[in-house]
Amino acid sequence: MVKIVETPRDGFQGLLHPIDTKKKIEYLNLLLKCGFHTVEVGSFVSPKVIPKMADTAEVIEGLDYAKTKSKIAVLVATESGGRQAMKFQQIDQLFFPFSTSPSFLKKNINQSLDQAEHTIDQLQAMCVNNNKQLIVYLSMAFGEAYGDDWSIELLIYWVNRLIEKGLNIFPLSDILGEATPDIIHKVFRSLISKFPDVEFGFHLHSADYQRMEKVDAAYMAGVRRFDTVINGLGGCPQTGKELVGNLPLHNFLDYCGMNNIPIDINKYWLDQAKRFPIF
Fold it and tell me: How far is CA 188 from the centre of its chain?
């Protein structure tokens, strides 16, 4: 069984136009009926940076979380964002966008490696005290685009450092969509063999070319947690480069079907979500 993490937050921020808050709530409530392992519903970040997420608090208040089996997650990048998230019982998980690339960290969340590690420490303390879970994403995990050092050994160093803080789930991101299937398989195989009790996930940004080969490379390396977005929209607006869309949910479901991989998704509610005029 694979875990599917539906990340509409990533899709929303890639749109050119804002979405009405009531419409966003209605759409997210449909997703919460589909049976995804986790639904990332928004982010507590500066509205000056990501204005489309300014209504996250109002959105969370409108979620029908009592009737879902999905975990509800939000992205946070600062201690302030973490404190906002702690106010909501509905939130199960906080996603933090870390990277071993100092240049990308500066572009993405305006923090140095030391500052980001301090933020992780503060967020982890908040989560432990409030019965929530911190999940640290390793962005730019398959190579370097800004001239910084990159190696599998560097990834191993940071994963080990984060494990010592009590963390045990690490989705790896290919933000720019430039990683090859070979390097994806090599990175995951190395990390999973080194840390067999840790859960590694795959947050893929990719054009159509080799998308399924990249998914297959991760799955064959042992990954069982995949982030998706219905219609594949989204992308990181802080890279300084062109947005590259997310892994479309239908592509991943097709991959599962072709490879007899069991999934636990309610097809009726998924069809309703696909038909909903949100994107």
Answer: 17
